[in-house]
Amino acid sequence: MKKFFKLFICVCLSLLCVSGFSACGGQTDKSAVNLVAIDGGSVGIRGDIDYYVVAEPAASAKVKAVQGLNFVGDLQKLYCGENGYPQAVVVAKNELFGTDFLDDFTNALVQSYDWLMSEGTYIENIVTAVQSHLTAGLEPAITIRNLTKPVIENCGIKYVSATDSKADVIAFMEKLNSVSGNKFRKPSDSFFINGNGGSEHAKISVYAPDGAPALGLAKLMSEKVLGDKVEYHIIKADTIQTVISGAEPKADICVLPVNLAVNLLGGAEKYRLLGTLTHGNLYVLSKDNTQITSDKLKDLRGKTVGVVNLSAVPGLTFKLILKSYGISYTEPYND
Predict the structure, then answer these.
(1) Which of 21, 75, 77, 333 could form a disulfide with 282 if both were Cys (CB 3.0 to 4.6 A apart)?
(2) At residue 14, does pLDDT exceed 70?
(3) Does position 154 have pLDDT exceeding 90, yes or no?
(4) How buried is residue 207: exposed, middle or buried, by Cβ count under 10 Å (0-12/13-18/19+)?
(5) d(C-alpha 293, C-alpha 17), whole Å
(6) How far is the C-alpha of 129 from the C-alpha of 165, rounded, in Å?
(7) What is the residue-wise DSSP string for 185-226?
């Protein structure tokens, strides 16, 4: 009898493995998209991954560096056409609102994309502007070798004021909550109100993560639009929240992912939203050159997709897109 039960259990476990349950290690669910958390160094070289979700400018750098790797999908278009979604936002300390400085800063942000794409703005100048403000020891995401005008265009840089982006930010956060295990807070109305009567500061510290958000500040850093009173700091993306936290946060102005801005600062106690700086810069890469359009998303079923920052905006956005098309997904294992 004992032998019979042992045999029965073995058969059941074998069936589970054949069916693709993650407990059997490495098997995939053929009816769902199988998501895997990866780091940037794994993009294009993992034999067990079919597709990758990567942000620009890292995506273009990988396509250039890894033979056979191609752009096959655009999450912005899959989400809602050309407009994309609010990805990186700019926040400022409450006391800066209503100052001439913040008005000048905002006006420069409005001009950022046109300046970046202008024939008179050379790639060398843009790269120098960003790299000269990198934290010591930080490997630059933006280099002469990987930055081109098309890459800049892919970065989705378009400044939209807090007033004009309020509805998009709220709607996007509500959608992210539908696929996130940790619910984000709902931002208060005051988070989107500029306010007035601020006080001028002798020195202003501006922080941004390296990559597309840093490109959004390149004009200000290159031309010293606001003089020497502004200190720019381009830092690692995974440390950006440290400069807006604590009793006396370092950043007077900060660029950070929309989910962090809303979750950490949405009560408007210390910071308010100045505006949205980037509107989607996530792309799908693969060595299979089949383009992943809205009609082809279903072809990802049974495939493994590696996502850089699976638990943050990139992963949540991809999950949101899959959900909106009625495509299930699993997270069988994480690296």
Answers:
(1) 75
(2) no
(3) yes
(4) buried
(5) 31
(6) 28
(7) PPPPGGGG---------S-EEEEEETTHHHHTTHHHHHHTTT
